[in-house]
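Feature request disguised as a bug report, sorry. It would help if multi-protein outputs had a clear separator. Right now it looks like this:
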Amino acid sequence: MGREFVLACDMRFAALESAIFGQPEVGFGLIPGSGAVRHLARLMSRVRALEVLLSAEDYDAGMAECYGSINRALPAAALCDFVKSLARRIASFPASALAVVKERVNASALAPAEDFRRDSSLFLDCVRNLPLAAVLAIWKEWSLVSPPLHLKLNYHVLSQTPR
């Protein structure tokens, strides 16, 4: 859900050296249920969204920027200063103009709320149909392994999910 939270933000910036993005749900037999399908299809195009969602691969910040799911990938040392500078610049403009621009962009670019609710319902349907033992085994292993497991979660999931 962390990536889906990030995708719901108005702007996204990431450190080139350390940011990793992925949608591993398909490896669990699930679909993303918190907006990733809608956001990624809108941000990157249908074909790239399908690649990201169906492959369950990890993507670094450079690839995420290239694919369009983040605004910019910057060196970690420059990231904070860049974001602060951008935020200050935006905050210096009249709030009324910012609000109208954001409302119009949202009206043109965001999927209706019903579409997000439908994805959440489909996610829950998938969860109900999964063998509980397989899900528990995956999450148990994940919780017992050092943090790098999440960097290739798709491979760990695929190795344990019954076919």
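(second protein starts here, but nothing in the output says so)
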Amino acid sequence: MTSHGYLFHGLNLTITGGAEVQAALGARLGQFPSGRLQGRPDLRFDFVKMTGSQPVVRPAGVGRPILEVGAGEVVYFDDLEQLYLDFPGCGRSLCDVRNRHATVWYSESAAADAWLLSHPFFTISLTELLKREGLFMVHAAGLAVGRKGLLLAGDSGSGKTTLTLMLVRAGFGFLADDTVFLSASVPGEISRGLRVLAFPDEAGVTEQTAGFFAELQSLPGRPPPGGRNKKPLGVAQTYGVKPCWECEPAVLVLDEPTSDLDPRGRREFKALLREIPATKLIATHDLELAVELCARAIILDQGQIIADGCTVELLADEKLMFAHGLERPHILHHIHPH
């Protein structure tokens, strides 16, 4: 067992574990500066290989599932401020959020597939711990030009990595292939602006993506870890670039941002958007949201621009709205368009 420290955006992160754990996490965190090992760390992870029965048990009480992981479970216990992970046959972990400490107990089979330890076990707990430090994870690739950032959000297989590699080759700064963190420019004061913080992890590259780039032709010969279909690629090392550690969003592009929110969530989200000073481009059918937040609106129908102008004036035009399958939003019954 050895310990290694990383300086993760000002937080001292200490990881203790065997050689297989340190190698797997070193590949993910190796671009971060080394942190101190003396004193109490801000965030601590202990990885312990099980030699007998599993020493961790599921916390008592009612837990709240926060992620679906097939046969396993990821459950948060609000009263205890503990996050419990269980991957049957591979290991369990208990993350004490209050004390910023996660412990992972893993089996011999998990040791042979360190990806499970360095990704699900580590990433899920890290994400929960960083929330308490004001850093919030976004599943997106991150690039930058100067101090202005570009985030590419999308599900796995949507092309984030391919586009990221193309843009890095074209001279964009590299923040991340899959995960970035958002933070207020001034802690606790979102109205002062947002920061996008890098996580220059290894990229996961499919053979199809590798085939687009001459410099990656050697990748198909490397077996993916654990039988997966993506092979690890150190983007910063491959292209000889230093990570761009931080940038600011110039524009927020939001696609139906209120579609899965309950009424309280919608109110809170709209209040948050009002505070953020960046330009916002919102694609939405929530016309109440458009009236409340957008000075300008563009109405689209069948991919064509139908109208472009003052939001209140356009959405108050009942004839225009009806002709294109929309209705005048109720909020405008209380607002005069002029």
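Even a blank line would do. Unrelated, but nice: Residues 141-249 form one domain.
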